[in-house]
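hey
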């Protein structure tokens, strides 16, 4: 293993960290889930920092990092929805958005041209609100009871940013594909 592989290794470890996060939630050990989710969040920042700071970016890392984020978030949303702590519709919307984006990215990559996608600003906001909702719900269950309005506002924020982000991706990448075909 080379030093350049460290960010990818951190991303892979974050994927595996999803398992004890989900297990902790299913066992109603939200204190442990909160700590593990926080460690996963720190590892996300760490792999990005290492990759950018030391120039260790790679195509594999560009795929592993968002994949690790999605696995952690989708598994957390699925678990919280099954436990009745977030609406099932919200969980389905989050998963549907990700499926639309992944499908669109694959189609674009193989039918239009190689995809070099950076997350849009609304997508970054969406990821932040999704993470924050998990943290708020887990915090509410594990350490301190929060006012119900805080969780409700966060749920609505995730609904809004998820829809806006999904529509933005479809709009932007459809526009780019049409422009590319016009140039051919």
């Amino acid at each position: 293993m080379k030093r350049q592989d460290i960010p990818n290794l951190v991303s892979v470890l974050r994927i595996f960290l999803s398992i004890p996060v989900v297990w902790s939630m299913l066992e109603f050990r939200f204190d442990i889930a909160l700590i593990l989710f926080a460690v996963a969040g720190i590892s996300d920042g760490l792999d990005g920092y290492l990759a950018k700071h030391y120039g260790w970016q790679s195509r594999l890392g560009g795929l592993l990092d968002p994949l690790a984020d999605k696995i952690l978030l989708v598994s957390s949303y699925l678990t919280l929805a099954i436990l009745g702590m977030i609406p099932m519709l919200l969980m389905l919307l989050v998963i549907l958005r990700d499926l639309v984006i992944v499908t669109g990215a694959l189609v674009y990559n193989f039918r239009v041209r190689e995809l070099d996608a950076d997350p849009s600003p609304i997508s970054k906001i969406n990821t932040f609100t999704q993470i924050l909702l998990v943290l708020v719900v887990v915090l509410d269950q594990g350490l301190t009871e929060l006012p119900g309005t805080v969780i409700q506002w966060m749920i609505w924020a995730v609904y809004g940013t998820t829809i806006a982000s999904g529509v933005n991706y479809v709009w932007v990448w459809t526009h780019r594909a049409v422009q590319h075909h016009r140039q051919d």
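The two ends are 42 Å apart (CA to CA). The CA atoms of residues 42 and 175 lie 35 Å apart.
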